[in-house]
Protein backbone atom coordinates (compact mmCIF):
# COMPACT_ATOMS: atom_id res chain seq x y z
CA UNK A 1 0.00 0.00 0.00
CA UNK A 2 1.28 3.43 -0.97
CA UNK A 3 0.96 6.41 1.38
CA UNK A 4 -2.13 8.51 0.65
CA UNK A 5 -0.21 11.38 -0.92
CA UNK A 6 1.83 9.10 -3.20
CA UNK A 7 0.74 8.20 -6.72
CA UNK A 8 1.88 5.43 -9.04
CA UNK A 9 2.98 6.92 -12.35
CA UNK A 10 4.69 5.49 -15.43
CA UNK A 11 7.93 6.91 -16.80
CA UNK A 12 5.96 8.11 -19.84
CA UNK A 13 3.65 10.11 -17.56
CA UNK A 14 6.43 11.90 -15.66
CA UNK A 15 8.78 12.66 -18.58
CA UNK A 16 8.51 15.28 -21.29
CA UNK A 17 10.16 12.83 -23.68
CA UNK A 18 11.81 9.42 -23.76
CA UNK A 19 14.03 8.75 -26.76
CA UNK A 20 17.15 6.87 -27.76
CA UNK A 21 20.61 8.02 -28.80
CA UNK A 22 22.14 7.41 -32.22
CA UNK A 23 21.71 3.75 -33.17
CA UNK A 24 22.49 3.55 -36.89
CA UNK A 25 26.23 3.48 -37.66
CA UNK A 26 27.33 5.99 -35.01
CA UNK A 27 30.99 5.28 -35.88
CA UNK A 28 30.57 7.19 -39.13
CA UNK A 29 30.59 10.38 -37.04
CA UNK A 30 33.71 9.56 -34.97
CA UNK A 31 36.60 12.02 -34.89
CA UNK A 32 39.49 12.68 -32.51
CA UNK A 33 38.92 14.29 -29.10
CA UNK A 34 40.45 17.58 -30.24
CA UNK A 35 38.00 17.87 -33.14
CA UNK A 36 34.74 16.60 -31.71
CA UNK A 37 31.98 16.55 -29.12
CA UNK A 38 31.70 13.86 -26.44
CA UNK A 39 29.14 11.14 -27.07
CA UNK A 40 27.84 8.99 -24.22
CA UNK A 41 27.87 5.22 -24.65
CA UNK A 42 26.78 2.55 -22.17
CA UNK A 43 30.36 2.47 -20.87
CA UNK A 44 29.99 6.08 -19.70
CA UNK A 45 26.85 5.37 -17.67
CA UNK A 46 27.55 4.06 -14.18
CA UNK A 47 25.00 3.62 -11.41
CA UNK A 48 24.21 7.16 -10.32
CA UNK A 49 27.31 8.72 -11.89
CA UNK A 50 29.13 9.42 -15.14
CA UNK A 51 32.21 7.39 -16.02
CA UNK A 52 34.44 10.15 -17.33
CA UNK A 53 36.67 7.90 -19.45
CA UNK A 54 36.59 5.83 -22.65
CA UNK A 55 34.82 8.55 -24.59
CA UNK A 56 34.14 8.66 -28.29
CA UNK A 57 33.64 11.95 -30.10
CA UNK A 58 31.22 13.07 -32.81
CA UNK A 59 32.23 15.54 -35.49
CA UNK A 60 30.38 18.86 -35.30
CA UNK A 61 28.64 17.93 -38.54
CA UNK A 62 27.59 14.54 -37.13
CA UNK A 63 26.42 16.19 -33.91
CA UNK A 64 24.30 18.71 -35.82
CA UNK A 65 22.76 15.91 -37.89
CA UNK A 66 21.70 14.20 -34.64
CA UNK A 67 20.41 17.15 -32.63
CA UNK A 68 17.52 15.06 -31.31
CA UNK A 69 19.99 13.16 -29.11
CA UNK A 70 21.80 16.26 -27.86
CA UNK A 71 21.75 16.11 -24.07
CA UNK A 72 20.49 18.68 -21.58
CA UNK A 73 21.24 19.10 -17.89
CA UNK A 74 18.90 16.84 -15.93
CA UNK A 75 18.42 14.22 -18.63
CA UNK A 76 18.48 10.69 -17.24
CA UNK A 77 20.50 8.22 -19.31
CA UNK A 78 19.63 4.53 -19.09
CA UNK A 79 21.72 1.65 -20.44
CA UNK A 80 19.91 -0.47 -23.02
CA UNK A 81 22.33 -3.38 -23.57
CA UNK A 82 24.82 -5.11 -21.30
CA UNK A 83 23.56 -3.90 -17.92
CA UNK A 84 20.06 -2.68 -18.86
CA UNK A 85 18.52 -0.24 -16.40
CA UNK A 86 21.76 1.28 -15.11
CA UNK A 87 21.12 5.02 -14.96
CA UNK A 88 22.83 8.35 -14.34
CA UNK A 89 21.88 12.04 -14.51
CA UNK A 90 23.45 14.41 -17.03
CA UNK A 91 25.18 17.13 -14.98
CA UNK A 92 25.84 20.67 -16.35
CA UNK A 93 29.37 19.82 -17.51
CA UNK A 94 27.95 17.25 -19.96
CA UNK A 95 25.12 19.36 -21.34
CA UNK A 96 25.50 19.60 -25.11
CA UNK A 97 27.06 16.15 -25.48
CA UNK A 98 25.49 13.54 -27.71
CA UNK A 99 24.49 9.94 -26.96
CA UNK A 100 24.80 6.55 -28.62
CA UNK A 101 22.31 3.71 -28.11
CA UNK A 102 21.19 4.71 -24.60
CA UNK A 103 17.71 5.71 -23.46
CA UNK A 104 17.38 9.47 -22.91
CA UNK A 105 14.61 10.34 -20.46
CA UNK A 106 13.84 14.04 -20.02
CA UNK A 107 11.89 14.43 -16.75
CA UNK A 108 9.08 16.91 -16.31
CA UNK A 109 10.50 18.69 -13.26
CA UNK A 110 7.00 19.71 -12.19
CA UNK A 111 6.33 16.01 -11.59
CA UNK A 112 9.64 14.31 -10.82
CA UNK A 113 13.18 15.48 -10.14
CA UNK A 114 15.90 13.87 -12.30
CA UNK A 115 17.80 12.46 -9.32
CA UNK A 116 14.68 10.70 -8.05
CA UNK A 117 14.02 9.11 -11.45
CA UNK A 118 17.65 7.97 -11.57
CA UNK A 119 17.52 6.57 -8.02
CA UNK A 120 14.35 4.65 -8.71
CA UNK A 121 15.66 3.23 -11.99
CA UNK A 122 18.79 2.00 -10.19
CA UNK A 123 16.81 0.53 -7.27
CA UNK A 124 15.97 -3.17 -6.95
CA UNK A 125 12.32 -2.36 -7.63
CA UNK A 126 13.20 -0.39 -10.76
CA UNK A 127 15.67 -2.98 -12.05
CA UNK A 128 13.21 -5.82 -11.52
CA UNK A 129 10.71 -4.01 -13.76
CA UNK A 130 13.38 -3.39 -16.38
CA UNK A 131 14.33 -7.07 -16.28
CA UNK A 132 10.71 -8.09 -16.89
CA UNK A 133 10.32 -5.63 -19.77
CA UNK A 134 13.55 -6.43 -21.63
CA UNK A 135 13.47 -7.76 -25.16
CA UNK A 136 15.91 -9.94 -27.07
CA UNK A 137 16.98 -13.55 -26.61
CA UNK A 138 20.73 -14.08 -26.25
CA UNK A 139 21.52 -10.38 -25.73
CA UNK A 140 18.91 -8.65 -23.61
CA UNK A 141 18.16 -5.02 -24.33
CA UNK A 142 15.82 -2.29 -23.11
CA UNK A 143 13.58 -0.58 -25.64
CA UNK A 144 12.30 2.98 -25.24
CA UNK A 145 8.71 1.75 -25.17
CA UNK A 146 9.52 -0.73 -22.43
CA UNK A 147 11.21 1.88 -20.23
CA UNK A 148 8.22 4.17 -20.64
CA UNK A 149 6.08 1.46 -19.00
CA UNK A 150 8.16 1.33 -15.80
CA UNK A 151 5.91 2.35 -12.90
CA UNK A 152 7.18 4.63 -10.15
CA UNK A 153 5.65 5.08 -6.69
CA UNK A 154 5.81 8.87 -6.67
CA UNK A 155 5.82 11.08 -3.56
CA UNK A 156 5.25 14.84 -3.67
CA UNK A 157 8.19 16.88 -4.99
CA UNK A 158 9.41 18.10 -1.55
CA UNK A 159 9.62 14.49 -0.35
CA UNK A 160 11.38 13.44 -3.55
CA UNK A 161 14.02 16.10 -2.91
CA UNK A 162 14.48 15.04 0.72
CA UNK A 163 14.82 11.35 -0.23
CA UNK A 164 17.35 12.24 -2.92
CA UNK A 165 19.34 14.34 -0.43
CA UNK A 166 19.42 11.51 2.12
CA UNK A 167 20.56 8.92 -0.40
CA UNK A 168 23.16 11.29 -1.83
CA UNK A 169 24.81 11.20 1.62
CA UNK A 170 25.35 7.46 1.14
CA UNK A 171 26.55 8.09 -2.42
CA UNK A 172 29.20 10.50 -1.14
CA UNK A 173 30.32 7.99 1.49
CA UNK A 174 30.47 5.21 -1.11
CA UNK A 175 32.36 7.42 -3.57
CA UNK A 176 34.84 8.45 -0.87
CA UNK A 177 35.43 4.85 0.18
CA UNK A 178 35.88 3.76 -3.46
CA UNK A 179 38.57 6.41 -3.87
CA UNK A 180 40.31 5.34 -0.65
CA UNK A 181 40.21 1.73 -1.82
CA UNK A 182 41.61 2.57 -5.26
CA UNK A 183 44.36 4.62 -3.61
CA UNK A 184 45.25 1.79 -1.21
CA UNK A 185 45.35 -0.71 -4.06
CA UNK A 186 47.63 1.58 -6.06
CA UNK A 187 49.89 2.12 -3.04
CA UNK A 188 50.16 -1.64 -2.50
CA UNK A 189 51.04 -2.15 -6.16
CA UNK A 190 53.80 0.45 -5.88
CA UNK A 191 55.01 -1.08 -2.60
CA UNK A 192 55.24 -4.52 -4.21
CA UNK A 193 57.22 -3.07 -7.10
CA UNK A 194 59.68 -1.47 -4.68
CA UNK A 195 60.02 -4.14 -2.00
CA UNK A 196 59.99 -7.27 -4.17
CA UNK A 197 62.67 -5.99 -6.52
CA UNK A 198 65.00 -4.59 -3.86
CA UNK A 199 64.61 -1.03 -5.20
CA UNK A 200 63.52 -0.02 -1.72
CA UNK A 201 64.90 -1.70 1.38
CA UNK A 202 63.15 -1.73 4.72
CA UNK A 203 65.08 -0.14 7.62
CA UNK A 204 67.85 -2.34 9.01
CA UNK A 205 68.37 -4.49 5.92
CA UNK A 206 71.38 -4.42 3.60
CA UNK A 207 73.34 -6.95 1.60
CA UNK A 208 72.88 -8.68 -1.72
CA UNK A 209 69.90 -10.83 -2.63
CA UNK A 210 70.52 -14.29 -4.06
CA UNK A 211 69.04 -15.76 -7.21
CA UNK A 212 67.23 -19.06 -6.78
CA UNK A 213 64.46 -21.17 -8.33
CA UNK A 214 61.15 -22.44 -7.02
CA UNK A 215 62.53 -25.98 -7.11
CA UNK A 216 65.28 -24.87 -4.71
CA UNK A 217 62.78 -23.09 -2.43
CA UNK A 218 60.02 -25.70 -2.21
CA UNK A 219 58.45 -28.77 -3.80
CA UNK A 220 55.79 -27.80 -6.39
CA UNK A 221 53.37 -30.71 -6.71
CA UNK A 222 49.80 -31.65 -7.54
CA UNK A 223 47.54 -33.78 -5.38
CA UNK A 224 44.70 -36.09 -6.30
CA UNK A 225 41.52 -34.39 -7.53
CA UNK A 226 38.30 -35.13 -5.66
CA UNK A 227 35.20 -36.11 -7.60
CA UNK A 228 32.23 -33.77 -7.09
CA UNK A 229 30.19 -36.73 -5.80
CA UNK A 230 32.68 -37.11 -2.93
CA UNK A 231 32.22 -33.53 -1.71
CA UNK A 232 30.25 -33.05 1.51
CA UNK A 233 28.40 -30.21 3.26
CA UNK A 234 30.83 -30.12 6.17
CA UNK A 235 34.39 -31.05 7.00
CA UNK A 236 37.53 -29.48 5.55
CA UNK A 237 37.28 -26.86 2.78
CA UNK A 238 38.25 -28.00 -0.72
CA UNK A 239 39.84 -25.66 -3.26
CA UNK A 240 39.91 -26.20 -7.03
CA UNK A 241 40.87 -24.11 -10.04
CA UNK A 242 38.18 -21.50 -9.27
CA UNK A 243 38.56 -21.40 -5.49
CA UNK A 244 36.36 -22.99 -2.84
CA UNK A 245 34.21 -25.84 -4.22
CA UNK A 246 32.90 -27.67 -1.12
CA UNK A 247 34.01 -29.80 1.80
CA UNK A 248 35.72 -33.17 2.28
CA UNK A 249 36.26 -35.52 5.19
CA UNK A 250 40.06 -35.24 4.95
CA UNK A 251 42.66 -32.55 4.34
CA UNK A 252 45.98 -32.72 2.51
CA UNK A 253 47.44 -29.47 3.86
CA UNK A 254 47.49 -28.77 7.57
CA UNK A 255 49.00 -25.29 7.32
CA UNK A 256 48.56 -22.27 5.05
CA UNK A 257 49.77 -23.11 1.54
CA UNK A 258 50.66 -21.22 -1.62
CA UNK A 259 48.80 -22.74 -4.59
CA UNK A 260 49.09 -21.91 -8.29
CA UNK A 261 46.13 -22.74 -10.54
CA UNK A 262 47.56 -24.91 -13.30
CA UNK A 263 44.55 -25.55 -15.56
CA UNK A 264 41.78 -23.62 -17.28
CA UNK A 265 40.88 -19.96 -17.62
CA UNK A 266 42.36 -19.02 -14.21
CA UNK A 267 45.68 -20.72 -14.99
CA UNK A 268 48.57 -18.89 -13.30
CA UNK A 269 46.50 -17.43 -10.43
CA UNK A 270 48.51 -17.50 -7.19
CA UNK A 271 46.55 -17.99 -3.95
CA UNK A 272 47.38 -18.28 -0.26
CA UNK A 273 45.02 -20.94 1.09
CA UNK A 274 44.30 -21.25 4.79
CA UNK A 275 44.87 -24.64 6.37
CA UNK A 276 43.74 -27.20 7.14
CA UNK A 277 42.34 -27.68 3.64
CA UNK A 278 42.23 -30.03 0.66
CA UNK A 279 43.78 -28.56 -2.51
CA UNK A 280 42.91 -30.50 -5.66
CA UNK A 281 45.10 -31.44 -8.63
CA UNK A 282 43.90 -28.38 -10.54
CA UNK A 283 46.46 -26.40 -8.56
CA UNK A 284 50.20 -26.74 -8.07
CA UNK A 285 50.96 -26.64 -4.34
CA UNK A 286 54.25 -25.16 -3.16
CA UNK A 287 54.93 -27.76 -0.48
CA UNK A 288 57.88 -28.40 1.80
CA UNK A 289 59.08 -24.78 1.79
CA UNK A 290 62.74 -24.62 2.80
CA UNK A 291 63.75 -23.12 6.13
CA UNK A 292 65.42 -20.11 4.50
CA UNK A 293 62.21 -19.20 2.61
CA UNK A 294 58.95 -17.59 3.72
CA UNK A 295 55.87 -19.03 2.03
CA UNK A 296 54.12 -15.67 2.38
CA UNK A 297 57.05 -13.94 0.66
CA UNK A 298 56.80 -16.49 -2.18
CA UNK A 299 53.07 -15.76 -2.46
CA UNK A 300 53.64 -12.03 -2.91
CA UNK A 301 56.70 -12.52 -5.11
CA UNK A 302 54.88 -14.79 -7.55
CA UNK A 303 51.83 -12.51 -7.62
CA UNK A 304 54.07 -9.61 -8.54
CA UNK A 305 56.11 -11.59 -11.07
CA UNK A 306 53.17 -13.23 -12.81
CA UNK A 307 53.32 -16.66 -14.43
CA UNK A 308 51.93 -16.08 -17.92
CA UNK A 309 55.31 -16.90 -19.44
CA UNK A 310 55.18 -20.53 -18.25
CA UNK A 311 51.61 -21.27 -19.37
CA UNK A 312 51.44 -23.74 -22.26
CA UNK A 313 48.57 -25.03 -24.37
CA UNK A 314 46.00 -22.99 -26.30
CA UNK A 315 42.67 -24.82 -26.12
CA UNK A 316 43.36 -25.80 -22.49
CA UNK A 317 45.94 -23.55 -20.78
CA UNK A 318 48.14 -25.40 -18.29
CA UNK A 319 51.26 -25.12 -16.16
CA UNK A 320 53.40 -28.23 -15.86
CA UNK A 321 55.75 -29.19 -13.05
CA UNK A 322 58.99 -28.77 -15.00
CA UNK A 323 58.07 -25.23 -16.03
CA UNK A 324 57.16 -24.00 -12.55
CA UNK A 325 60.22 -25.58 -10.99
CA UNK A 326 62.45 -23.43 -13.20
CA UNK A 327 60.81 -20.13 -12.23
CA UNK A 328 63.50 -17.79 -10.92
CA UNK A 329 63.12 -16.19 -7.50
CA UNK A 330 65.10 -13.34 -5.95
CA UNK A 331 65.62 -13.99 -2.25
CA UNK A 332 66.76 -11.63 0.49
CA UNK A 333 67.59 -13.08 3.90
CA UNK A 334 64.75 -14.80 5.76
CA UNK A 335 64.30 -11.90 8.25
CA UNK A 336 63.95 -9.46 5.31
CA UNK A 337 61.53 -11.82 3.52
CA UNK A 338 59.38 -11.88 6.64
CA UNK A 339 59.54 -8.09 7.01
CA UNK A 340 58.49 -7.60 3.38
CA UNK A 341 55.68 -10.14 3.79
CA UNK A 342 54.51 -8.35 6.94
CA UNK A 343 54.43 -4.93 5.22
CA UNK A 344 52.42 -6.30 2.30
CA UNK A 345 50.09 -8.23 4.61
CA UNK A 346 49.35 -4.97 6.44
CA UNK A 347 48.56 -3.33 3.09
CA UNK A 348 46.20 -6.23 2.24
CA UNK A 349 44.47 -5.93 5.61
CA UNK A 350 43.82 -2.23 4.95
CA UNK A 351 42.37 -3.09 1.53
CA UNK A 352 40.19 -5.83 3.03
CA UNK A 353 38.88 -3.41 5.68
CA UNK A 354 37.99 -0.82 3.01
CA UNK A 355 36.31 -3.49 0.87
CA UNK A 356 34.26 -4.47 3.92
CA UNK A 357 33.31 -0.82 4.56
CA UNK A 358 32.31 -0.42 0.91
CA UNK A 359 30.17 -3.55 0.96
CA UNK A 360 28.46 -2.42 4.17
CA UNK A 361 27.72 1.06 2.79
CA UNK A 362 26.26 -0.40 -0.41
CA UNK A 363 24.06 -2.78 1.55
CA UNK A 364 22.88 0.04 3.84
CA UNK A 365 22.04 2.22 0.83
CA UNK A 366 20.24 -0.67 -0.86
CA UNK A 367 18.10 -1.33 2.22
CA UNK A 368 17.37 2.38 2.66
CA UNK A 369 16.39 2.76 -1.01
CA UNK A 370 13.97 -0.15 -0.67
CA UNK A 371 12.27 1.61 2.24
CA UNK A 372 12.36 5.22 1.07
CA UNK A 373 11.43 4.67 -2.58
CA UNK A 374 8.37 2.59 -1.74
CA UNK A 375 6.99 4.76 1.07
CA UNK A 376 7.57 2.09 3.73
CA UNK A 377 9.70 4.62 5.54
CA UNK A 378 8.73 8.30 5.45
CA UNK A 379 10.95 11.33 5.78
CA UNK A 380 10.21 14.62 7.48
CA UNK A 381 10.02 17.48 5.02
CA UNK A 382 11.04 20.89 6.37
Automatic annotation (TrEMBL):
One of its GO terms (biological process) is DNA restriction-modification system. It comes from the Bacteria. InterPro entries: Restrct_endonuc_typeI_TRD (IPR000055), Restrct_endonuc_typeI_TRD_sf (IPR044946), Type-I_RS_S_subunit (IPR052021). Signal peptide: none annotated. Residues 3-181, 208-356 form the Type I restriction modification DNA specificity domain. SUPFAM superfamilies: DNA methylase specificity domain (SSF116734). CDD domains: RMtype1_S_Sau1132ORF3780P-TRD2-CR2_like, RMtype1_S_SonII-TRD2-CR2_like. Residues 344-378 form a coiled coil. GO terms for molecular function: DNA binding. Keywords: Coiled coil, DNA-binding, Restriction system. Belongs to the type-I restriction system S methylase family. This is Type I restriction modification DNA specificity domain-containing protein.
Amino acid sequence: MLPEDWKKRSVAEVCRSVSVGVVIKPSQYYVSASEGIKAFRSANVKEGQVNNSDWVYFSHKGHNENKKSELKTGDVLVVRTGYPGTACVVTPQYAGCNAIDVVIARPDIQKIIPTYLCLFTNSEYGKSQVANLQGGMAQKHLNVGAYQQVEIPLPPLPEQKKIAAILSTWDRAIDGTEKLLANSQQQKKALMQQLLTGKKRLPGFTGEWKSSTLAACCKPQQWATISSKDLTFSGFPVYGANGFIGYFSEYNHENDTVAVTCRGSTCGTVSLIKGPSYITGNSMCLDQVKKDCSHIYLYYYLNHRGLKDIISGSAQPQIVGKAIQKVSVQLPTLPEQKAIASALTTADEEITALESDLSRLRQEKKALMQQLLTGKRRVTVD
